[in-house]
Amino acid sequence: MKNFTFMALLYFAATASFAESDGRWFSSDQVKRGEVLFKQNCAACHGQNAEKTIDWKKTDANGKYPPPPLNGTAHAWHHSLELLKSTIREGGKKLGGVMPAFEGKLSDTEIDQLVAYFQSKWPDDVYQKWAERFEVSELPSISEVVQTNEKSSLTRHLRKRLGQFKLGEPTETAADDVWQVKFQDRFLYLIEGGKFAIIGDLIDLESGQNLTEISRRDLTIEEIAKYPESDLVIFEPEGEVKATLDIFTDTSCGYCRKLHKELPKLTGAGIRIRYFPYARGGEQGPGYATLKSVWCAKDRLQAMTDAKNEITHNLPAGDCEAAKVVDQGYITGSKVGITGTPALFKKNGEKIIGYVPYQKLIPMVLN
Q1: Which comes out higher in pLDDT, residue 119 or 164?
Q2: 80 in Cβ contact with 58 (< 8 Å)
Q3: DSSP states of 177-213 as a string?
Q4: pLDDT tens-digit profile of 48-64?
Q5: Domain spanning 229-366, CATH architecture
Q6: Closest CA to 181 of 164, 193, 198, 161
Q7: Could you give the residue range(s) of every CATH 3.40.30.10 domain in the chain?
Q8: What superfamily does domain 18-134 belong to in CATH?
Q9: Are 158 and 171 in contact (CB under 8 A)?
């Protein structure tokens, strides 16, 4: 087995309380599968739509309770998920009922699907009461979800634990039983079957590779590739193109202006410069309106140079169709982890942080 280590920044326990109020732990696929199982095994007693029995609180002639409705009108929502599942496995005799045990007949995955089906019948207010009553640790473990290969369900489980953050699709890593998930502008790793999540870098100690950095670069390349060159401000070298440097820039940034003055040195060395807009602070940022004006200009190259030199009186209004790229650039910058400008990216997705004098920058880009 390979050796790996984590450069961890933060840990999350999987026993946190519910973080959202409107989501449910199960997927639509689980509900569909559960409906089939319910009608095969449960509907004869609990009703086709989990609506039986009207007098479920009254015992029969033998002193036994009849099958209660499971659609949220009875007491099923008073029970944790584990108790609901164990009752299906072990039967209802210990609760004073007559339901047979399904252990050995239904798998754990099928029992999850059964519960998903009848919980889908619960009104939102009933489900929410249940969700607030029981901790998320009572939900199926992430390792169980991984085994069913329902990635959308896995993402839903993570949101229950971590809140309504932007989460990517889970992917397997080279490490045994470790899954990687894009978490906002970082990556987290699920370990011990999803009991813990680590935010940090996963290092392959045998090869010396930073596997997280590889994922970061792949993500950057993917996001940057979404932009047609007609959406960018591009400064071409006079001769052969030896390399391309993508720069997220803000016209109000002092170091961006300093770097822009050195562009002739970079293009003279054969480096093609592609500018992406990144307004620090978004719509409230000092360079937001000016960047929009630059992107609306007929001659964007001259407009960018004028704006970097604080010559803005000749710039057009920033209300054209092309100005939407400024908003998109801010979103992209957030996805690829930009925290300041200038943010420079090589063709392979490697990020160069901040301003670097052209004497040092040129060999960094060309090598």
Answers
A1: 119
A2: no
A3: T-EEEEETTEEEEEEGGGTEEEEEEEEETTTTEEHHH
A4: 888 877 677 776 666 66
A5: 3-Layer(aba) Sandwich (3.40)
A6: 198
A7: 229-366
A8: Cytochrome c-like domain (1.10.760.10)
A9: no
